Amino acid sequence: MDSILDKPVFTFLLTIMIIFMQISESKNASKNAAERCFCKLKGEVDDCSCKVETLDSLNNNHIYPRLQSLLTKNYFRYFKVNLHKECPYWSDDSRCALKDCHVSQCAEDDIPVGLKSGDPKENKYSRENQEITTCAEERELSALDTTISDETKETFKDWRKHDDAQVTFCELDDDNSSGIAYVDLLLNPERYTGYRGASAHRIWHSIYEENCFQPDSKYSYGDNPLANLCLEERVFYRLISGLHTSINIHLSAKYLYPGKNGYGAGTWGPNKKEFQKRFDSKTTDGTGPQRLKNLYFTYLVELRALAKVAPYLEMEDFYTGSDEDDDVKSIVMDILQVIKSFPDHFDESKMFQDPTQASRLKAEFKNHFRNISKIMDCVGCDKCRLWGKLQTQGMGTALKILFSGDSIGPESTVGANQKSQFQLRRTEIVSLFNAFGRLSDSIYSIEQFRSMMS
Q1: Residue 223 — very low, low, confident or very high, per pLDDT cuts 50/70/90?
Q2: How many helices (H) and strands (E) does the chain have?
């Protein structure tokens, strides 16, 4: 009788034991995957003296929460972009048909009044005089462009010559092109769209194989694969790798889970398996952990650009005609103060110092990046194209800042009164902050994935 009663008890205990063993194995597997993904996220960032741990603290505790507030404001949420430019390198035969690839453009009435008449920085309208109340009135005012004097037209030509003379690393969309339109970035967030396969692979293949300085394949990834590259080439490669990493993190952090039984609206959330597939050394031939570390390098470069351009930005109004304009100015000043107080910035003055190579490297650096910015017009998914253009434009703006002005180096700045007459268009300012916001979001997401996997 006792043995009969013991059977269900034994079965129950055996089941509990198996469950605990499975949980333990799952935890160990997750722990091992975390170790394989994050093994390089410690110590100094390559070619910099700043440590990964320092940037984690700076970003997650100070910069990320401030940027989350700033980038919801009108000045930064409305981005003017042309998503209809033809690919200059191949015929686009693989447009994404998925609904999540679609980008919703802004209706006329949604655009802040201060942005409707063009770039507030270029137009220099005062708040008192900008009292446009209807779209009809705005069109009527716009018609006055036909009465511009010959003298003013000559001034415009001088402005264009000045713009062309500045150091630029990417081509900006023409504000007068037929396909230009405002997009609300908050209504079109960067996340997983399902855009993958041959078309997406061709984009990154073209970027890395044709427009990026390549590490020596004879080295294993743990044996300094960039050893055959000079500093400038290493900087370029790490910048692009860090951007690519950031985009992959966004796709993993905002992954679409289908509705129940494949029906109904899906839900968006972090996908641990997708992250592991992209960054686990086991699934990436050992390259994933270094890709994650390159993200911190890209973050440092754009952080330095914001520190250098701070005096210029501190003189901006960030005007949209909205009640929140003063609040935007205050948040920007707060962020810049945090960035300027950071003691361990990237030092761009170490680049292009070899007199025998500097001219060639500068030209290659600039031309490679301009080509990459053009490749973004070949992306088949509209939403991916939007964020690809914005982030490459933001990085190009950062490079323009770093290598403009009267001097370069840790103590150098770019102000509105520089001898170089340095200027930024509104679209450059918007892309600079949003691109940096994407990097900030990626570093914050790494901490979330680390917690999920440990």
Answers
A1: low
A2: 17, 4
